Q: What sequence folds into this?
């Protein structure tokens, strides 16, 4: 949950990937959700704790949550943490 911010003040969004498509998707979503704020996206490499190619919805969801948990530990002062995990089911 974002801390209370003054309109125009930057929001820091940690995206647990360096994939440019995932970064831009997160940036676009936050720009639309918070149009009065500057959005600062910080890519971060963290472990998902699951297979490189998750093979179930449960494993995919667990991987995304694991990434967010690790990101919150590494960058605790961010306003939001985004974990995007692609998987097959």
A:
């Amino acid at each position: 949950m974002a801390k209370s911010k003054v309109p125009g003040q930057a929001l820091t969004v940690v995206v647990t990937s360096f994939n440019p498509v995932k970064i831009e998707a997160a940036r676009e979503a936050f720009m639309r959700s918070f149009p009065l704020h500057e959005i600062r996206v910080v890519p971060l490499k963290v472990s998902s704790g699951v297979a490189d190619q998750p093979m179930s919805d449960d494993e995919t969801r667990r991987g995304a949550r694991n990434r967010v948990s690790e990101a919150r530990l590494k960058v605790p002062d961010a306003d939001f943490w985004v974990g995007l995990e692609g998987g097959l089911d």
The CA atoms of residues 60 and 87 lie 5 Å apart. The first strand starts at residue 11 and ends at 15. The chain has a mean pLDDT of 89. Strands lie at 11-15, 39-43, 80-82.
